[in-house]
Input
Amino acid sequence: GAVVSQHPSRVICKSGTSVKIECRSLDFQATTMFWYRQFPKQSLMLMATSNEGSKATYEQGVEKDKFLINHASLTLSTLTVTSAHPEDSSFYICSARRQLNTEAFFGQGTRLTVV
Amino acid sequence: GQQLNQSPQSMFIQEGEDVSMNCTSSSIFNTWLWYKQDPGEGPVLLIALYKAGELTSNGRLTAQFGITRKDSFLNISASIPSDVGIYFCAGFLIQGAQKLVFGQGTRLTINP
Output
């Protein structure tokens, strides 16, 4: 199988602090990882695409300095929400794929609440 | 913004009925994927389609990759209560950096 593990599943933080979310491919090497944000009863909105060893490509409207993405290895990508504000509260989900033109597998998601 | 138009947005059916949903786009895709998402969890891959015209089944699920590479459908036969959830189509665009974009989702509700 292809397992993607995301951690933590839930996190509550105070305004102004930073939060790091990890995404790991457990049984395969992921050349590409995707980060999504999902609001209640809405679809997944792509935030950024990251390739191992390269800078992430951010979607229009996503602040790269606020949502720091690191893809340092073929099995790990991290998303850091810096200086979090209540409006950053959301469900964040990562996805990973082995190579071009192959299916993508998703993590369990992280529920971020900023108070 | 969204590049995949998924319909219907919601469905209310009786247990045992068949279900059909589809996605269309003005863009060309080289891969179509269908996912199911339960509340509070990440999407789970149901079916992957790689070739135009490809018809693939996974149990009671059947999906097809349109000939024009701009559309796909998913059928669920003989629905059961555990089919309840939100179904998403997704695709990798041929152009650009191979981003995985999602449709708006179809929320399936089943009356026992």
User: Anything to note?
Assistant: Chain B has a mean pLDDT of 93. The longest strand of chain B covers residues 29-37.
